[in-house]
């Protein structure tokens, strides 16, 4: 097919075709049209060699598309992490192939969209999520609350955030957790009595959940705690001592 005979509408369609031959992508990448180059750079089958060429394009939007591609090699992401345009750095920050050391660098970027990108990265570490949960920008904290690896203590903390979107994401995330999740975090040391906050502002996680009208989440955690106690009892009956009633979750305080 003679690509030169095609209109740009047809070229765009070609570049978006999931079954396009790589050789045709290479030919389309020789065009000067920015939109067409973006479609090529975004293509899931765009080879690393072609992405390497497009990574040096003068248009930041093209470099953004390269930075977003899952096939973009790590050495190019290193370059993009220091790009002069914040939107390119933001795109790189979201790429799952971004090395952790660069995530740490971009988590301190002056532009909130770049920090949002780090918080949205599926490979963002728990340590970085904890740091970004204190970000001054609501959007960054909202991304943290919506991250699949956001720890339970952080989600409970963000339920009380001043940002509406942050609260919504934290509430949604907590309600989405199943019994297996709560069993796991309880084994790791979380409980309804875990203190959240600093100094005199500290509250038990269970109290925060009830204040946020998350009685369903409270009950899920309570059930997991009781199941854990039963498991410990049956696995070590001889050494079992009757628990202090004050240490048990108080069902009477549960607001339905």
From TrEMBL:
Region (Disordered): 234-256
Top-level taxonomic group: Bacteria
Sequence ranges of Polar residues compositional bias: 244-256
Protein name listed in UniProt: HEAT repeat domain-containing protein
UniProt organism field: Aeromonas veronii
């Amino acid at each position: 097919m003679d690509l030169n005979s095609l209109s740009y509408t047809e070229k765009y369609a070609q570049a978006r075709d999931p079954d396009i031959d790589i050789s045709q992508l290479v030919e389309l990448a020789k065009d000067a049209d920015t939109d067409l180059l973006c479609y090529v750079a975004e293509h899931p089958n765009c080879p690393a060699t072609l992405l390497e060429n497009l990574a040096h394009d003068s248009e930041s939007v093209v470099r953004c598309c390269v930075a977003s591609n899952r096939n973009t090699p790590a050495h190019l992401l290193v370059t993009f992490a220091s790009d002069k345009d914040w939107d390119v750095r933001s795109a790189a920050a979201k790429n799952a192939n971004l090395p952790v050391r660069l995530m740490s660098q971009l988590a301190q970027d002056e532009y909130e969209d770049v920090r949002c990108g780090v918080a949205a990265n599926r490979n963002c570490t728990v340590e970085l999520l904890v740091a970004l949960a204190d970000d001054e920008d609501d959007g960054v904290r909202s991304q943290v609350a919506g991250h699949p690896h956001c720890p339970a203590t952080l989600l409970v903390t963000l339920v009380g955030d001043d940002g509406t979107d942050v609260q919504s994401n934290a509430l949604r995330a907590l309600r989405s957790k199943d019994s297996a999740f709560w069993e796991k975090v309880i084994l790791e040391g979380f409980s309804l009595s875990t203190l959240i906050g600093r100094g005199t502002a500290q509250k038990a996680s269970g109290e925060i959940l009830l204040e946020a009208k998350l009685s369903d989440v409270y009950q899920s955690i309570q059930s997991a705690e009781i199941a854990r106690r039963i498991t410990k009892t049956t696995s070590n009956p001889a050494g079992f001592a009757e628990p202090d009633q004050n240490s048990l979750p108080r069902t009477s305080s549960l607001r339905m």
